[in-house]
Design a protein that fits this description.
This protein is α/β, with parallel strands linked by helices and 484 residues long. The protein has 17 helices and 9 strands. Strands 3-2-1-4-5-7-6-8-9 form a 9-stranded mixed β-sheet. Helix 8 crosses helix 9.
Length: 484
């Protein structure tokens, strides 16, 4: 049975349970089970490789102890064990003894729940999961595809639009930023970890020459996620991608920390993120920021923080909505601050359909470097491929769709860029004269010639008169026919 088929069969079993209500709960249930199986498989491998390694999970709660035997406990016995023993114990795990991985376990289970009410169905699910060996590289790679499907299912549940980014977009942003193993990479709103896994893959493929490079790569990652379910998904994703200690993924609200408390020691080399936009922060969060940047708009607060977090010479790639480009007030002050503190060298404009079906608003990829003010900004307009009206769930954006932009980019130093039908340059002085409105349309796109407005109005009036005359003629014909 393929991994995809196996996961589908697990979801079908869960649908029979009266305690699981909808996709979001079903995926949450799947995640804590996958998490325990993945970390136990990883623990067993680490125990073989190092004599001094001990799992952070107490023996009676390790997957191999209570779940691995297909004839093991089931029914009420299994339910009681999960609800009365396993969950309370892992929620209150003593991290002093368990170390960093123990903190990961406790954070994952902090807000996790066992939604299933049938112990027999739980046993069926457990037995299915036992068929997956997460130490088998082939199965792990196959499960990576399944994991993407799980994330898509979660979007359909209407609970995750704020932390989903198409994988082609994350891969493109990481490729352009080009993180290296000795650079700290931070995602302050990491969601399910798309930027982190892309950064891991990028550094492993391009820069990992020796086995000892791997710890350096993993140690460079930093991340925070506010919501429990995406945090759990992100931690599980990290384990799935071979990260031994995903404790760098903190379950917290980045914006809840006072702006001024982010000191020099907290600065990072790279920020890669798609901050939630369209949402508003809870009352009081904006008070953590300087007066000129105070707002409840989440994306604006994140942008202010990202500028502060970058080291001199640090670089960032950030997804922002069109509204952040043309908005006034706080948004204007933020853009002025951004262009004074950073070189905002490139804005890639994406069509509205890139984030469909989860959002249908225009988005932009902002690339900037800390330390020197902006002098010129290059814009690049990405278009939907010919023969396709829009991106969709069945025809999403792919990395090869962004290849023309990569070809135009000009390499790491962005040299020899030229204006094309998709690319144009604007000076910082022009932006300043526009009141820092960055919503600049492609000057090479010809507007449709709709004709002279006065002539159009005259034609409209004549057409309306003609329609009225035809209506009167029709009424006369019908009246005459009725009188006969």
């Amino acid at each position: 049975m393929s991994v995809r088929t196996l996961v589908k069969s697990i979801q079908d079993i869960m649908r029979q349970d009266t305690g699981v209500d909808g996709d979001a709960q079903r995926i949450s249930q799947l995640c804590w089970m996958f998490f325990l199986k993945i970390i136990d498989d990883q623990d067993q491998e680490m125990e073989v490789m190092g004599d001094d390694y001990t799992s952070p999970i107490p023996e009676q709660f390790q997957w191999r102890t209570w779940a691995a035997d297909p004839e093991g406990m089931t029914g009420e016995e299994l339910l009681n064990f999960l609800n009365a023993d396993l969950f309370p114990s892992l929620k209150n795990l003593e991290i002093d003894r368990a170390g960093a991985r123990g903190r990961v376990v406790r954070d994952v289970f902090e807000d996790a729940y066992n939604y299933m009410k049938s112990g027999q169905l739980v046993r069926q699910v457990v037995n299915k999961i036992n068929d997956i060996d997460f130490n088998d590289l082939t199965e792990r790679q196959h499960f990576g595809d399944i994991y993407e499907q799980i994330l898509n299912d979660l979007q359909s549940a209407g609970n995750a639009g704020e932390y989903y980014t198409p994988r082609a977009v994350t891969a493109f942003m990481v490729d352009r930023i080009d993180p290296k193993p000795d650079e700290t990479v931070f995602d302050p709103a990491c969601g399910t970890g798309g930027f982190l896994t892309c950064a891991l893959r990028h550094m492993r493929e391009r820069y990992a020459k020796r086995p000892e490079d791997e710890p350096t790569i993993q140690a460079a990652l930093r991340a925070v996620e506010k919501k429990q379910l995406p945090h759990m998904l992100c931690v599980t994703n990290m384990l799935l991608h071979g990260v031994e200690d995903p404790s760098f993924v903190r379950h917290d609200n980045t914006l809840a920390r006072p702006y001024i408390s982010w000191e020099q020691k907290h600065r990072v080399d790279i920020v890669l993120t798609n901050p939630p936009f369209g949402g508003r922060e809870e009352d009081g969060i904006e008070a953590n920021f300087p007066k000129e940047f105070r707002t409840k708009e989440t994306a604006d607060l994140f942008l202010a923080l990202i500028i502060r977090l970058l080291k001199p010479g640090g670089r960032a790639a950030v997804v922002l909505p069109d509204g952040s480009l043309f908005g006034e007030g706080v948004k204007t002050r933020l853009k002025e601050h951004l262009m004074e503190e950073c070189n905002l060298h490139t804005i890639v404009r994406l069509p509205n359909s890139v984030f469909r079906p989860y959002a249908s608003i225009g988005t932009n990829l902002l690339f900037f470097e800390k330390g020197a003010p902006t002098t010129d900004i290059w814009f690049y307009e990405h278009r939907v491929p010919e023969g396709q009206k829009a991106y969709s769930m069945t025809r999403p954006i792919r990395l090869d769709h962004l290849q023309p932009c990569i070809d135009w980019w000009g390499g790491a130093d962005r040299t020899d860029r030229t204006e094309t039908e998709r690319a144009w340059k604007v000076t910082a002085e022009d932006v300043k004269a526009r009141g820092y409105n960055l919503d600049i349309k492609n000057p090479h796109t010809q507007e449709d010639d709709l004709g002279d407005p006065q002539e159009l109005l005259a034609k409209l009036g004549a057409t309306e008169a003609e329609v009225s005359d035809l209506r009167d003629q029709l009424k006369a014909i019908l009246t005459e026919a009725l009188l006969r």
